[in-house]
Structure formats: C-alpha cells, structure tokens
Design goal:
By secondary structure, this protein is an alpha/beta fold. 37% of the residues lie in helices and 17% in strands. It has 3 domains: 66 residues, no CATH class; 151 residues, Rossmann fold (3-Layer(aba) Sandwich); 114 residues, no CATH class. It is built from 15 helices and 13 strands.
Length: 383
C-alpha cells in the first residue's frame, strides 16, 4: 500500500477534511471522529495492519513535506507568480463535493484557467463535462456567460448580432450577448456543445480564440468592423469528439488546436456509487449499487469490439434513474422510462433493448423485470 500523509483542514465552522499534499481528499477513508482526534492543522499517516485493515496514526510536518509536490522554480519568483501558484495548489478547496473528477485533472483545469488558456472539456456524453465546466465557473467567481452552440440555429445572430428595421430608426444593427461577453473584462465564457455547432460558428470563433488575434469581426456593424476580446477573458468549451455521437461534426483541427484539451473520464462503478449516494443518501444502498453496476456493464458492452450494445447508460442517466427511485419509482419502472428508450428495439429478440431487459433481471430480486418483456420476448426467455 502506498504511503499517504494527510493534513486535517477546517471546512466552514464545524466540518473538517483530510487532504494530501497534492490536494487529494481522503476524508471518505478517515472517519470524522478520527479527524477530530488528530486535530485541525496536524498530520496523519495511513497504515495497514496485519489483517489488511487500514488505520491512521499521527505524523509530522516533515513527513508531509516529504510528499509535497516537487518545486521546479527558484525561490526568487514574482508576487503575481506566487499568487498563481497558491491558487493552483489550493485547487482542491474549490472543487465542489458533488463533482467526481480526477484530482490532477481538476488541478490542471484550474491552472489552465489561471493562465488564461482556452479550455475544451471532452469525453463521452453524460460523463460530467458541463458540470465540470460550470464548477470551474463557480470556483473562479468571475462574470460569466453561457452559450449552447449545439442548439443555435443562426450562428451569426448568436455570436455577432442582427440587422433590424423599424420606422423610427430605419435599418440598424444590434450586437449579440456574445459581444457583451467578450468585451467584459475577466469574464468566463462557456461554449457548450461546441462539437455540435454549425461550421459557421467555428469560422466566426477562429479569430476570437486565436491568442495572436483575439478579435471578433462585425461585418454588419457600421463604422466598427472588429471588436477586441477584453483582458482576462477565459473560454471554456465542451465537446463530444468521435463519430459515434449523433449530430457531432468532425471539428476543424485549427479550431481544436486553439484549446487546452482536458478529457473527462467515464466513472467507475465505485465512483458512480459514491456520486449517487451523495446526491440521494436516502435511496437504499443495494439499489444504488444495482444502478451503478448496470450502467457499468452497458459501458463495457458498448466499448467492446464485439459488444452487444452501441450505446450505454451515462452518468447523467444514472443520476436521473436514482432520482426516479428517490421519488418512489421501482428500478423497473425507472428503467422503462429512462433506460430502455435509449436502446434500439430493432431486431426483435436480438435487439439491444431486449439485451438490456435481460440485464435488468439480474438486478431485480422480485422477478418484476419480467413485466418489461413483450409476450414474444417472454416466450423466448422461457424457451
């Protein structure tokens, strides 16, 4: 077992947390009474007994310092750089409790924002890209703007503005909210579903996102052909990259290269249980485990070369399913409305939907999953 040294820190007025020198939170491994016993500001080391059981013992600051990140810069740094370093290394404090994300990737996300990088969150649908992006926006506590480019029918109207006419003014041009966003100093602009945007939107954004240019061309605006991006503006985009996503276009490489890419991981079943239990603590543990395991099996099948599924149950979907159970639905009722419609029914008994129904039987102890089968499917099962 790897050596883990943690420091006990206060959270608010009454809670504590145990974190290592890299910002990883071990509070779930150390009971609150033990954190209280060690004391705020003190250190502890994780040990393993002869039976394999882990426990915690007091440690020294020297032990903690030995596990701290390697310093690769000299002591002679500017105050601005020191402020950035302090911000980056305290990133774990900014991570919301409900966001299950690799600690190093969260730290990289914070660092990229602190350095003014354009950030692109990528990963499968429903893995938490938008949640991570919005969590970053909240952590930075700066003016922010949201644009869903996947739902935009008229990119020029959304990103530039519109030409209007009335009798009093005649023909006139009105700037879009996006123009206001890019001219607001230190703003954070979330470009959701960038991979689903129309190519015209990508073309408009090319100069906006280019570090050497950073301007928006306003062709229709009389007397002002361009608008410069204000100081400190940060762009955060989300994208599904891959041919398997419906309505997702192959993004222009020149556009992709304007971003720092942070890939979101698909949650393991263990992390999924942790998230769902956190969101819905009153749902029975066995039901939470069943939902998480069912989702994980569909992901394995969808990712296998000869898997039986082309789609899977995403984290967004498991959150919805757990919410339905919390509101009184049985697992099978939740499955009927929130799981099965995600899978193709074509092919009858060999369809993906029938395969998922068969999976559900494993996670339903009372046999009620049989109600999900049609007469033909039920006959095949009996045979």
């Amino acid at each position: 077992m790897n050596t883990v040294i943690v420091k006990i820190e206060a959270v608010g007025t009454s809670r504590t947390r145990a974190v290592d020198a890299h910002g990883k939170d071990y509070s779930h491994e150390m009971p609150s009474y033990k954190r209280k016993q060690i004391g705020v500001g003190n250190y502890a080391v994780r040990k393993e007994g002869s039976t394999g059981r882990t426990f915690w013992r007091n440690a020294s600051k020297a032990d903690w310092d030995a596990t701290a990140p390697v310093v690769t810069t000299t002591d002679d740094i500017s105050e601005d750089h020191k402020a950035v370093l302090d911000f980056i290394h305290s990133s774990y404090k900014l991570k919301p409790k409900g966001l299950i994300m690799n600690e190093i990737k969260w730290k990289y996300l914070i660092r990229s924002a602190a350095r003014g990088k354009n950030i692109m969150m990528t990963g499968p649908a429903g893995c938490g890209k938008t949640m991570a992006a919005k969590s970053l926006v909240d952590a930075l506590d700066r003016p922010n703007f949201y644009f869903n480019l996947g739902a935009t029918q008229d990119p020029r109207a959304t990103l530039i503005g519109n030409v209007h006419y009335n009798k009093a003014k005649g023909t006139y041009f009105s700037e879009s909210l996006f123009v206001k966003a890019i001219t607001t100093e230190n703003s954070v602009i979330l470009l959701d579903e960038l991979s689903r945007a129309h190519p015209d939107a990508w073309n408009i954004l090319m100069t906006v996102l280019d570090e050497g240019q950073r301007y928006l061309r306003l062709d229709e605006a009389e007397g002002q052909s361009t608008v410069n991006v204000a100081k400190g503006v940060t762009f955060v985009a989300t994208a599904n990259i891959g041919n398997e996503y419906t309505s997702t276009r192959v993004m222009d490489r020149a556009l992709v290269d304007r971003f720092t890419n942070i890939e979101m991981d698909v949650l393991t079943d263990t992390d999924e249980v942790k998230l769902l239990s956190m969101l819905y603590p009153n749902v029975k543990e066995d039901l939470i485990n069943n939902v998480a395991e069912l989702a994980w099996v569909t992901r394995v099948e969808a990712g296998a070369d000869e898997g039986k599924l082309s789609n899977h149950i995403s984290t967004r979907a498991t959150v919805e399913i757990a919410g339905l159970i919390y509101d009184g639905f049985t697992l099978n009722e939740a499955a009927e409305v929130a799981i099965l419609p995600r899978f193709d029914a074509a092919g009858g008994l060999e369809s993906e939907r029938t395969f998922v129904k068969q999976l559900l039987q494993k996670y339903t102890s009372d046999g009620s999953a049989e109600e999900l089968f049609t007469d033909a499917e039920a006959g095949e099962e009996a045979a």
